Amino acid sequence: MRSIRSVFALIVALVAPLLVAVSGGGATASAAFDPAAFDFWVDSPTMGPIKTRILRAADGNTDRVVYALDGMRAREDLSGWEIETNVAEAMAAANINVVMPVGGQSSWYADWNAPSSFLGIPPGTGSSNTGSGATDILGGGPGKSYRYTWETFLTNDLRWALRDRLGFNPNRNGVFGLSTGGSAALTLAAYHPDQFSFAGAFSGYLNNSAPGMREAIRLGMIDAGGYNVDSMAPPWGPQWLHMDPFVFAPNLVANNTRLYISAASGRPTAQDGPSMGTVNGMALEALALANTRAFQVRMATLGATNVTYSFPDYGIHAWNTWQDEAYRMLPDLSANIG
């Protein structure tokens, strides 16, 4: 066992410099905490107590609800939407109740096949929470000590708790997300059309079964907490295809789900200063753009008329890009929920 770990550690050390180029991070801003939002705890049978941050609609209605999904590097304290943007405040001011699930690093908000592990080695046998996937691979943590079941949580446990405890409408909700959360937003809408009448994907990976994508995702998940894509979904099986927007696109057309899909050019804006983060964000956005364009062609071949696309000339894989897109999406979201 010791020799297996040593070999594995060597492999990870060799590829670690490449990992940041395929992980879903993006530029960051100063952390923020919105005192108007509140914690809403709901038990998951498999994941235990899960925190969600709620920001109530300004007019007090309970009919208009949107779920805001985080990206691959989701933290355990606050949603990235609250930390990095004021999107939730803008939506609440537009009389929309904002639901921000917290946690789920590298989860894709999916129901996983098994807890994340490598080479059959149980979690908790190495370092964790170091900020480096190369050292976190054998560490414990969410989705390693238990099986991620995020899709079930969002569409069952949280959905009905919001209805029963806050009176929120469980139908015709919106959902949007960035990067892997954008892909997940489309997945939720495709398979739960009674719950979600609107979905938005910003810089999403919408063609996951394209050549090379699974291995790019593998490296990104290793870097973002040391998670194993094979624990999430075996290659090319039903679970994997269930998560691929290119594959389930016919569902979105048949459901007539209102969609807002965006990806930027990868060219930095004036807000994106010279740094390795900007370089990484450029590469990540270029990959998201290629995926999104492929999805656009796929939807066109299906005769889709339920999609608004946004392809700004400037923007990288970063929070300022996603905040701008959320503002552009807001009128469409507001008109298609509740």
Layout of secondary structure:
Elements: H1 2-19, E1 38-44, E2 48-55, E3 65-69, H2 80-84, H3 87-93, E4 97-101, H4 133-136, H5 150-166, E5 173-178, H6 180-191, E6 196-202, H7 213-223, H8 229-232, H9 238-242, H10 245-255, E7 258-262, H11 276-301, E8 307-310, H12 319-335
Parallel strand pairs: 3-4, 3-5, 5-6, 6-7, 7-8
Antiparallel strand pairs: 1-2, 2-4
* Helical residues, percent: 40-55%
Mean pLDDT: 89
Q: What is the distance, rounded to the nearest whole angstrom, between the alpha carbons of the first and last residues?
A: 55 Å
The SSE string, one letter per element, is HEEEHHEHHEHEHHHHEHEH
Low-confidence stretches: 1-31
Strand order of the largest sheet: 1-2-4-3-5-6-7-8
Biggest β-sheet description: 8 strands, mixed
How many domains make up the coordinates?
1
Q: How many helical stretches?
A: 12
- Beta-strand share of residues: 5-15%
| Dominant shape | globular
The CATH C-level class name: Alpha Beta
The name of the CATH architecture is 3-Layer(aba) Sandwich
Radius of gyration: 19 Å
Structural class: alpha/beta
Instruction: Tell me the CATH superfamily.
Output: Alpha/Beta hydrolase fold, catalytic domain
| Strand elements, count | 8
CATH fold assignment: Rossmann fold
Task: Provide structural commentary.
41% of the residues lie in helices and 14% in strands. By secondary structure, it is α/β, with parallel strands linked by helices. The protein starts with a helix and ends with a helix. A hairpin with a 3-residue loop joins strand 1 and strand 2 (48-55). It has one domain: 3-Layer(aba) Sandwich (Rossmann fold). An eight-stranded mixed beta sheet has the order 1-2-4-3-5-6-7-8, with helices on both faces.
